[in-house]
Amino acid sequence: MKTAGNILSALFDEGFVKKAQGYSKFFDSWTDITAKNGIAAAAFHSRIKDLDRGIVLVEMDHPGWKQILQTKQCKLLNDFRYRFPELEISGISLMLSRAPTPGEPNAEEETKAETTNEPTAQTAVGEEQPAASVAISEPALAGYDAIKDEEFREKLIRLGQTIAAEEKNSI
């Protein structure tokens, strides 16, 4: 059986495949380039959106990150030029995102959460949940302590509660 890579190689010439791999490396380089310039945290709040006529379009989720990136813009540009001379990068354009970045709640979700009139109950980890939700046992919550990202941990706990409630309702 042929792999997807073999099929694509048969469809496209080698030059096209190498160019595509170069673009892939370019978009994946953002974390390394920000870390090299002392602003590794910026990679979690920004991303390379596009490369248009030699201009790297970088999108971020907050004006504060835009200011931080502006202070390093010259160094970032030099790193891009050094790593990817074939792309003929001539500048960097920084812009704010119109949509929330992955992992961030959007304004509509926050508004719904704030306007809920349902009574709440405390769960084992101390966060408030709707009273209708199913509590997860103490031993089941112990594994969540290893997750450093608080927002992700909370989402996993809510997912577990939803699954437990669905299982309880299906019995």
Class based on secondary structure composition and strand pairing: alpha+beta
- Give the helix tally: 8
CATH topology (fold) name of the largest domain = GMP Synthetase, Chain A, domain 3
Q: What is the H/E order? A: HHHEEHHEHEEHH
CATH superfamily of the largest domain: DnaA, N-terminal domain
Task: Explain how this protein is built.
The protein is built from eight helices and five strands, in the order αααββααβαββαα. The longest helix has 21 residues. It folds into two domains: 85 residues, GMP Synthetase, Chain A, domain 3; 52 residues, no CATH class. About 16% of the residues have low confidence. The strands form two sheets. A three-stranded mixed sheet has the order 1-2-3, with helices on one face. It has a two-stranded antiparallel ribbon with strand order 4-5. With 171 residues, the protein is an alpha+beta fold. The two termini are 43 Å apart. The chain is 50% helix and 15% strand. The radius of gyration is 22 Å and the shape is flat.
Index terms:
single chain; 171 residues; alpha+beta; GMP Synthetase, Chain A, domain 3; 2 domains; 3-stranded mixed sheet; two-stranded antiparallel ribbon; flat
Short characterization:
This protein has 171 residues and is α+β, with helices and mostly antiparallel strands.
Helices, strands, pairings?
Blueprint: H1 4-11, H2 14-28, H3 30-36, E1 46-52, E2 55-60, H4 63-71, H5 73-83, E3 91-96, H6 107-115, E4 120-122, E5 128-130, H7 138-142, H8 150-170
Parallel strand pairs: 2-3
Antiparallel strand pairs: 1-2, 4-5
